Structure formats: C-alpha cells, structure tokens
Amino acid sequence: MAFPLDKVYYMPDTEDSGGRSLGSCPRNDGQTVSVMLEWGASAPIDIGTHIAEVVENIPTEVDVNRPEEIRTLKIQGTFKEALRTALVYEGPQQLVNLHDVLLNIKKPSGVERRMLSSILATQIRSLHVHFRLVHTALRPESFVFAVHQNKPELINPYVLDWGRALSQGIYQHPEYQATQPLWFYDVWSLMIVLSEIAEWRPADGTFQGEKELLRKKLERKQKATDPNWKGDLTAKIFQYGFGFLEKDRHTLEHLSRRDIKRFFDKLCARKKNG
Description:
The chain is an alpha+beta fold and 274 residues long. The chain contains 9 helices and 9 strands. The protein has helices at 47-57, 98-104, 110-129, 183-199, 210-224, 227-230, 232-244, 249-253, 257-273; strands at residues 9-10, 20-26, 32-40, 74-81, 84-90, 95-97, 143-148, 151-152, 158-159. It is globular, with a radius of gyration of 18 Å.
C-alpha cells in the first residue's frame, strides 16, 4: 500500500509536462534515493486500494518479468503538500514522457513508429490480460522512458499516472463515468495515443465546452480511420480499435475475459504487422 511519506525534498523548477517533479527521499535504511513526484490536485478516495493493487501486481525495473509485460517504477508512497498530493516513485533521474518525445524528437521512420505503437499496445494488453487491472487515466504523459546518452529508450517504456484521476479531455472516453472504471475506457485513450504516434504530434486537446470537446474526439476518430490520412493499413488498425468501441455499452461491460483478450490480441497483431 502507498503509505504517507513525511520527508520528501523536490525541485519545483523541474516539473515537466506530465506534472512530475524530481526530488529525493530518505529510506528507512538511512540511504537517500532519487524520486519522482507525480502531482495531483488531490488524492482520490480509493487511491490506497488502487495503488496497493499496482504495487502487488505490476512489475518494476527490479523485477524479472517477460519483455511484453507492463512495467512501472517502484512506488515509495504518497506525499501531501497543502492542497495537492503526489505519488512518489523511485527511479532514474533522467526520464522523458511520450508527450515531450513527440514534441522534441525528430519524427522516426514508419517502421520505428509502428514498433513503438506495438510496444505500448502490448503493455496495455498486459495490464488487462495478465493482471486484470484498469488504468483509466492513460495519456501520452503516462508513458515514460529512461534517457541514456541524450536518447530516450523507446523500446522500454514505464507506465505511470497510477494515482491521477483522468481529467476531462480528448483521452477520456466519450461515455466516461468516473463512478465506474471500465476496461474499454483504456482502449479509447490508447487509440488516441497511438494516433499521436502515427502523426508524431500531440493531439489538439484544447476545447471550450463539452460540445467542442465531443466534436474534437469524433474528428480525431474520423481522421485516424480515414485511409487518406496515413494509408490503408494504418486506417484498418484504427478502424478495428475504434470500431470495437462502437458496440453498445452493455455488451462492452459484459464481455468475457476471453473476448477482451481476443480484442487485444488482434489489435496488437495488427499493430505489429501494420
């Protein structure tokens, strides 16, 4: 369980686009470790239960796990300051999130972009199929990469944002309900992130009012599924993913574990081969 931490030192000027700051934290053995603070306006009421499941199940960089399994950074605990709370991770000091990668790294080849998309899709498949957990707050900033020799290791992502509630935006499923986290919410978020990788540019998430936000979500979906955008093979991948979400809500809510696995298997196979 993520227990409260009394002493965490951080550098406010290091906060990145994902709302994370670098810092340090003393451990019980007397050593001081480098940490990353993931800030939120407040801690969700059920954060303890959710984080306990993540700590218990999701492998970290110190665990021995299969290459296709999802990974995260070791969670040290939570730290509260005034009106905001941070989830505190232990890990490398040089990390970069996908949003910043899309903005600052030269657009890779189509093969490299497809590989990255396949890796991220496989990680979310692992979350749902191997560990039977739901994230519900996925965004490009949720995926972070260690940096070595000024280059991000894009083949080895970590998934973060475990303590963050998903804010209203383009990554939020059009029928999202905060009271009931559902598996297919992650699929919508993932498809939007994959479309950003295909274009190698963050989606326009600005909006004024719910009507404009819904319009932008539908426009993004239509754009990604159009063969004239990135070609027929790419369109078929997004047609499959977004098309699956067009099933009625009741059907999606009551799909068996086998059916969910089949969906992710087909999506990942299409990303790998597309």
